[in-house]
């Protein structure tokens, strides 16, 4: 596949769309280079000059990659891989609204992929003007609503302002929005709080509802499809709590859903906001799915800052030179470690307590996008798609699972995320260093220790080294930086999918379990109603399992 990046057009998309990863000359080259990857343990291998030059920057985020097992020939081959797969050309086509969510020749979602249009609103010329205009209209609706709350024009039945908001949603309607809210809690409007109910476990809802003054609480029900079992169940549960408290739900409940979905019924809600078909759940944080709660909790100006940061990174992701495009470079380094050096997992370890749920969001964004076994032509993949993504904030992780990362028998590449300054700026000098300095020093020490290792005559105290990591570093975790970081990872996932030639935008793999759960629930409902069907199908393994787990010990 010899196409140059940045050309665009339908002919080009067709050829990139069916571009097999292992047919590219860059694949062959990288395979050769992987036989003797850069040795980070060699004397002088991690020189100050290397550390200075292996650094890419965009939208206030630095990517330091000197501690990866790459050298100039590997970087040149990765650049070639980006070009031969048309990674940036496909990214631009995605932003322009090309139908990229599809499997050729088979029934599939057949949709454009336009989460970037939610923040393209700042660009002088939007690449997808229609969807950007729709996104802008929803944002303006939200701005009016938030201003009315602020001005006391929308209040509860007793004339009091709303102080709390509960987001009811799951998967993409929960993980990203929750991760961002927690990340930016330092910027909250005083007196406002946001809570989340996602699991169909009744205890999830009960624990949240128990601590709330419902009269002063808004409930934001978020479901693109408007038909998700967990969300609809939890909505009913919360409505019931309002009814029991003698409160009218339509004065408290908001909806974020797709136009025409079963939830698209404005009469039931105080306000209805919309998201669009072309925005997938796990890519929906910057749509109304995240915007409503972030606007309520942090205020509209901070929400715009998040969008601005995301937009800046989306623009940086259009850069064809991999050394100037952190999202693309991170994607390629991931492919180098996973497909060529054989690493099965990736740990994302933020040195920021505020990012406590960010890895969980990235786990969904990445694993739901890249957990695929067929190409975009429906053929079995002859190469590995996505790795397992996991992680927890450091330094806590250092006292938990880092032992395996340093001395275990598998190699776990790491992406560290850190900040030069804390969010609150409330810190103390203890033994001449601040806590923030201690945090960052620990992050850097881990990257160094993993890379260089340390020989010891005691084998149990020996560190083999050559364990790759990358460091993402920004000044401070602000709304702008958070938006940029979010967009960086979204673009990384999308780039990897383009290179692996998989559809990163559907999630058929979640359907079978949902269907089987539905059958078991039908059976339980029929049994409760005393219907005959409940006793049938003796040889059904699902019913046999149900019978077994229902037996008390
Ligand atoms: C994400 C997935 C999935 C989705 C949830 C909730 O990309 O599509 O996690 O977000 O299943 O779906 P609804 O928003 O339709 O309730």
Task: Report on the architecture of this protein.
It contains 18 helices and 13 strands. The strands form three sheets. Strands 1-2-13-12-10-11 form a six-stranded mixed beta sheet, with helices on both faces. A five-stranded parallel beta sheet has the order 6-5-7-8-9, sandwiched between helices. It has a two-stranded antiparallel sheet with strand order 3-4. 42% of the residues lie in helices and 11% in strands. Among the domains are: 122-308, Glucose-6-phosphate isomerase like protein, domain 1 (Rossmann fold), CATH 3.40.50.10490; 509-550, no CATH class. The protein has helices spanning 10-17, 25-33, 48-53, 72-85, 87-95, 129-151, 175-183, 202-210, 229-244, 288-298, 300-316, 326-340, 358-370, 402-407, 435-452, 479-500, 511-528, 541-550; strands spanning 55-58, 61-64, 99-101, 111-112, 164-168, 193-197, 217-223, 253-258, 271-275, 345-350, 388-390, 414-419, 469-474. The chain is an alpha/beta fold. The termini are far apart. Glucose-6-phosphate binds next to loops.
Briefly characterize the structure.
It is built from 18 helices and 13 strands. The protein has helices spanning 10-17, 25-33, 48-53, 72-85, 87-95, 129-151, 175-183, 202-210, 229-244, 288-298, 300-316, 326-340, 358-370, 402-407, 435-452, 479-500, 511-528, 541-550, and strands at 55-58, 61-64, 99-101, 111-112, 164-168, 193-197, 217-223, 253-258, 271-275, 345-350, 388-390, 414-419, 469-474.
